[in-house]
């Protein structure tokens, strides 16, 4: 049966992981046009645009977190779904081996990574029969950072800043606005949301995720929901959260709402948040041969590779601009240059002194060279009770789970963007104090405990651009070694030599936090939207 089916699924996985579809690219481009290119959010969107083009050109993952592969499949009656499942699993293993997917399947009890993206419940496959003669397969790769910002409401509810949300259209409106607010920059805004109204707790989330399979520029056939989608798109962007939570004009790039019946006693509003790296694609497949007959979303060849992206992004590499990213400026280590936005650009080489760190302020762009060390959940938990295998005094920890490939020459990084940092909040302050770490790189910011540790011990938090896995992989010049590979590739401690690695100071050693400021400001703007709109 269907001798070409496994190859077709493999091609679908590669396309989804490495090439954003045209409707998503247009939404990103439209958002970029609304943002002042000299602001932090404008620079972030330019970097995102550059990363999209790099991933397409190199056929490498757009974001290192390739998520939980989730398939929604419609098949004709009589097609052998068991054989299809086996072929899908084989294609998943192959894509993981080739570095198109990161090994993301972890045993929930032991923490062991399967290494091939297979395991109980992985990948997620939803089969449905229909009366068409062909097979329709949709795939979405939704990373953990945005998955963690999904949220479900049970109405009626009392919502921060918005008051009572009742069991009506206006209550739904308030839930969606609150969902965007609570995500802040941790879900790699500017993002897309799918909303499921009704159902039970499980089917509500499934409905929400299915909304993400709609095209960005489609029109909701239900007038009330069409009006609600338009309202959310207009008003969510008034919250001022901006790209990466840096503040700005563009917080949301798409909103799709669906509804289903519910029990009289239950009224759920389920919101599936997706980052700007909105990786979903689909194909129609011949049920006889297994060959792809049609791509269901416009393939995004070159739509937003964007001439001029390198000149306006956080690009600190040579070629057109100086090493600082400013044409003609090549500051030495520790010296600074002003960008077009007025922010300082400061070059530092690891290990970094406390004196150099305390010179930094929120808003500075730091360009790092030297060695850094990746560390995520497993490593942070381990370091609380154990010593580090390397000297971390003056070092930089990068919250990153890279995509790695190994050949006869050793390990190579193929994708290496930041992961969401707030997960490490229970550990980070203690680890900064224990080891003398000077800088932490991640995305989305951290909380009060980490901010206090940065102030007490002389450290900064550097916000890299979430999802920009190709952009940052290019800054990694060498893999120096690895510890704790038994934790799995994403959770291992990778020792990397970097050059020209740029990120923005968003928490400094003087008690300042851009994330806290943006959250406070957006909370005030959220309260302005409290008044009932839909009656």
Concise description?
This protein is of the alpha/beta class. It has helices at residues 5-18, 22-34, 40-58, 81-97, 144-147, 169-183, 201-211, 223-236, 309-312, 354-358, 377-385, 425-435, 448-457, 469-473, 514-527, and strands spanning 68-76, 124-130, 135-142, 151-154, 157-159, 163-165, 191-197, 252-259, 268-274, 279-285, 292-295, 336-338, 344-349, 365-374, 396-398, 403-407, 410-415, 439-442, 460-463, 476-483, 493-507. The chain has three domains: 1-143 and 280-313, no CATH class; 144-274, no CATH class; 325-513, fumarase (Alpha-Beta Barrel).
The parts where pLDDT drops under 50 for at least 5 residues are: 303-311, 316-333
CATH topology of the largest domain: fumarase
**What number of domains?**
3
What would you report as the Rg, rounded to the nearest angstrom?
Answer: 23 Å
Mean pLDDT: 92
The CATH homologous superfamily of the largest domain: Fe-S hydro-lyase, tartrate dehydratase beta-type, catalytic domain
- Report the total helices: 15
Annotation keywords:
535 residues; alpha/beta; fumarase; 3 domains; 5-stranded mixed β-barrel; globular; iron-sulfur; fumarate hydratase activity; 4Fe-4S; EC 4.2.1.2
Which helices and strands appear, and what pairs or packs with what?
Elements: H1 5-18, H2 22-34, H3 40-58, E1 68-76, H4 81-97, E2 124-130, E3 135-142, H5 144-147, E4 151-154, E5 157-159, E6 163-165, H6 169-183, E7 191-197, H7 201-211, H8 223-236, E8 252-259, E9 268-274, E10 279-285, E11 292-295, H9 309-312, E12 336-338, E13 344-349, H10 354-358, E14 365-374, H11 377-385, E15 396-398, E16 403-407, E17 410-415, H12 425-435, E18 439-442, H13 448-457, E19 460-463, H14 469-473, E20 476-483, E21 493-507, H15 514-527
Parallel strand pairs: 1-2, 7-8, 13-14, 14-15, 15-18, 18-19
Antiparallel strand pairs: 1-3, 3-10, 4-9, 5-6, 7-9, 10-11, 12-13, 14-21, 16-17, 19-21, 20-21
Helix pairs in contact: 1-4, 2-3, 6-8, 11-12, 12-13
EC number: 4.2.1.2
Family: Belongs to the class-I fumarase family.
Pfam family, one: Fumerase_C
């Amino acid at each position: 049966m269907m001798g070409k089916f496994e190859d077709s699924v493999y091609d679908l996985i590669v396309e989804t992981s490495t090439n954003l579809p045209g409707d998503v690219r247009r939404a990103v481009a439209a958002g970029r046009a609304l943002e002042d290119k000299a602001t932090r959010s404008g620079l972030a969107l330019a970097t995102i645009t550059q990363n999209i083009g790099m991933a397409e050109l190199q056929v490498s993952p757009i974001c290192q977190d390739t998520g939980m592969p989730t398939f929604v499949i419609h098949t004709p009656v009589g097609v052998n779904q068991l054989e299809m499942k086996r072929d899908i699993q084989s294609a998943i293993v192959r894509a993981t081996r080739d570095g198109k997917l990161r090994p993301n399947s972890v045993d929930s009890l032991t923490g062991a990574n399967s290494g091939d993206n297979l395991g109980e419940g992985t990948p997620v496959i939803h089969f449905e029969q229909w009366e068409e003669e062909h097979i329709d397969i949709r795939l979405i790769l939704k990373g953990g950072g945005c998955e963690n910002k999904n949220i479900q409401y049970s109405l009626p509810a009392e919502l921060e800043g918005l008051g009572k949300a009742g069991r009506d259209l206006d209550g739904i409106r308030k839930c969606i606005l609150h969902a965007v607010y609570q995500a802040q920059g941790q879900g790699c805004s500017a993002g897309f949301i799918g909303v499921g109204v009704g159902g039970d707790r499980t089917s509500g989330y499934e409905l929400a995720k299915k909304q993400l399979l709609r095209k960005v520029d489609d029109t909701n056939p239900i007038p009330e929901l069409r009006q609600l989608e338009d309202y959310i798109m207009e008003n969510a962007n008034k919250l001022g959260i901006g790209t990466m939570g840096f503040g700005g004009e563009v917080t949301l790039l798409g909103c799709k709402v669906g509804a289903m019946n519910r029990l009289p006693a239950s009224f759920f509003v389920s919101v599936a948040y997706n980052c700007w790296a909105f990786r979903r694609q689909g194909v129609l497949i011949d049920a006889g041969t297994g060959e792809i007959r049609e791509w269901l979303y416009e393939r995004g060849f070159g739509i937003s590779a964007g001439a001029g992206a390198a000149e306006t992004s956080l690009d600190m590499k040579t070629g057109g601009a100086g090493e600082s990213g400013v044409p003609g400026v090549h500051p030495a280590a520790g010296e600074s240059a002003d960008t077009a936005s007025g922010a300082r650009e400061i070059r530092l080489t690891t290990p970094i002194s406390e004196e150099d760190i305390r010179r930094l302020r929120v808003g500075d762009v730091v360009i790092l060279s030297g060695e850094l060390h990746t560390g995520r959940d497993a490593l942070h938990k381990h370091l609380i009770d154990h010593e580090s295998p390397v000297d971390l005094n003056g070092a930089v920890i990068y919250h990153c789970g890279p995509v790695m490939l190994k050949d006869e020459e050793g390990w190579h990084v193929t994708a290496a963007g930041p992961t969401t940092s707030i997960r490490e909040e229970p550990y980070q302050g203690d680890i900064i104090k224990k080891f003398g770490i000077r800088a932490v790189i991640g995305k989305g910011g951290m909380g009060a405990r980490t901010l206090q540790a940065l102030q007490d011990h002389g450290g900064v938090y550097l916000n890299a651009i979430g999802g920009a896995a190709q952009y940052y992989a290019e800054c990694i010049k060498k893999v120096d070694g690895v510890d704790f590979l038994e934790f799995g590739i994403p959770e291992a401690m990778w020792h990397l030599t970097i050059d020209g690695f740029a990120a923005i100071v968003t928490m400094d050693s003087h008690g300042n936090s851009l994330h806290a400021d943006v959250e406070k400001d957006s909370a005030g703007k959220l309260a302005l939207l409290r008044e009932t709109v839909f009656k």
